[in-house]
Amino acid sequence: MADYSQYQHIKVEVSGGVALVTLNRPPHNLLNIRMHKEMADIPRDLNHDDDVRAVVITAEGKNFCAGGDFELFSRHKDNPTAKALGFEETREFIWNMIELEKPAIAAVHGLATGMGCQLALLCDIVLAADDETTRFSDGHMNIGVPPGDGGALIWPVLIGLARAKQYLFSSDPVSAREAERIGLIAQAIPRDQLLPTAMEWATRLASGPTRRLP
């Protein structure tokens, strides 16, 4: 089993082949400098953990992940070196999620914005709480920058280029029910069933033939 003790804002519990990965900077799980790096690293570490056969990603607090915080944006504003490092971390995050060989299920409640939104959408199965608070949005255009963190990649794949442009250019939020209707996520379900359903899927997949034969 891998050692996840170095993570400060992400909690990992492994049992029965399932890694329960919890974003743990409540109430909004806003990305600071440390958490941004951890988001890039965690899929790689899960990929290399032989005890993990499936992954569930969820979050503590009110929101799944409401985007970046002031510390993160301030680092990038006037520091070209820090900005380049941030871009490199983001590229690592995208590729590490794409290359994650273990099936991943996202259980989303509240706001999923920016990198937090892409973290969910880059998972294999996305479940979301069917309530008034759950919303998906890229959010980058609200601060005058192009869609990022893999948003320009995954939104068109899931819902088509024309519809993806509508949501990425406007940063309009998408409710869980609408996200299910347009194919952005797999299913909108009652909040009290969200994590149990995700764990059921993960347990089922972890029990299946997930390893390549020689």
TrEMBL record:
GO MF entries: catalytic activity
Pfam family, one: ECH_1
Signal peptide (UniProt feature, chain positions): none
InterPro entries: ClpP/crotonase-like_dom_sf, Enoyl-CoA_hydra/iso
Family in the record: Belongs to the enoyl-CoA hydratase/isomerase family.
Protein name: Enoyl-CoA hydratase/isomerase family protein
Organism whose genome encodes this protein: Tectimicrobiota bacterium
Upper lineage: Bacteria, Pseudomonadati, Nitrospinota/Tectimicrobiota group, Candidatus Tectimicrobiota
